[in-house]
Amino acid sequence: MTLVALNPLEYALPAAFTDRVRETAISAAQRAGAIQLHHFRNTTVRCTRLLHDLKLETDTICENAIIAAIREHFPDHAILTEESGQLPGSGEYTWIIDPLDGTVNFWHGLPFFCVSIACYHNNGRAAEEDGTHAGLPGAPVAGVVFLPFSQELFVGMPGQGAFMNGRPIRVSGVERTRDAVVTVSFGKTPDTMRRMTRKLDVLLPQVRKARCLGAVAAELAYVAAGFLGGLIYEGIKLWDFAAGKIILEEAGGFLEAAETDPGQWRVLAGAPGVRQAFRKMV
Question: Cystine design at 188: which of 52, 129, 134, 258 (Cβ 3.0–4.6 Å)?
Fold first, then answer.
């Protein structure tokens, strides 16, 4: 039986199993993406307005479709979702999903949103001090990010590389922050907004440009593909970066996560050449 190493120092999983995980994640993401395109710019979609955020019926419909696809193939796996929280399972695996990342963009008709699906093996190593595995349930198995409007499918699997629509991708070779286009967020709370405003005072003079695109999973995929040089986000959840982390690291990039408040994470990510500069700025 062929084995694929997730962490060559610790354990390996059967290739047939990891392939099935990947294909399930891709199928579920594409199913949710089709729902999003059907609802996009549709004025009949129901919306609950929150301060600096939105909740749409589309989120729930997409989440239900993803959960059904996972349960069909892996009924004993646990699932952590943005809308439903933790759905327990008896197996050794946890799926982490964001059914519609970029909800505000989606609602306002801006075509930058995505589906994010990751699978982790619960018996993987625990969180490390440098944050490389912080908050995540174990060792990665597969990560998928799908942007339905542009039909861009990003896939990453440990030891197998990262791909966009089947083509290998690598992070940018940028080595100076002044050559990097960096994406940022301002968060959803006044405290987070104030922290990011202070960081921008330091960041803006030192980078080529800063952008606020509003869908962190898609932005991490774009960093992995070399379209962006780096990312600095405050106040995000595990499901926002669980899949993008796998794809980015397989593309040669880095992601550091620190829990600033319970369940709220600060994430630095990018090409290796800007890692130390990002740490100093943030």
Answer: 52
The CATH number covering residue 237 comes to: 3.40.190.80
Count of domains observed in the chain: 2
Instruction: Give yes or no: residues 256 and 160 share one domain.
Output: no
Answer yes or no: do 164 and 194 share one domain: no
Q: Tens digit of pLDDT for each residue in 174-193?
A: 888 888 888 888 767 777 77
pLDDT single digits (tens) 95-106: 999 999 999 999
List, for residues 25-61, the tens digit of each pLDDT value.
Answer: 999 999 999 999 999 998 776 666 554 455 678 899 9
Asked whether 78 and 88 are in contact (CB, 8 A), the reply is: yes
Q: What's the CATH code of the domain at 11?
A: 3.30.540.10
Tokens of 59: 């989120």
